[in-house]
Amino acid sequence: MLSEHYETIEILGTNIAIGILFLLIGLAIQDVLTKSNVPKFGRWFVWLVLFLGCAGFIAKGIIQVIWEAGI
Hints:
Layout: H1 6-35, H2 40-69
Helix pairs in contact: 1-2
């Protein structure tokens, strides 16, 4: 049974690992921003860039699924 679902498990594990990586990056950025007393505008800009990076990754995944499905 494991060999039949190996690809699905691998894709799921990769997506979970990347999600955890994004979470850890966010926590590291939050720590740096609070310890270095960054102004509010700078904080918004940093979080905007981080959000756009995550949104781009999610959009890429959705586009890839649609492309492979042939919709």
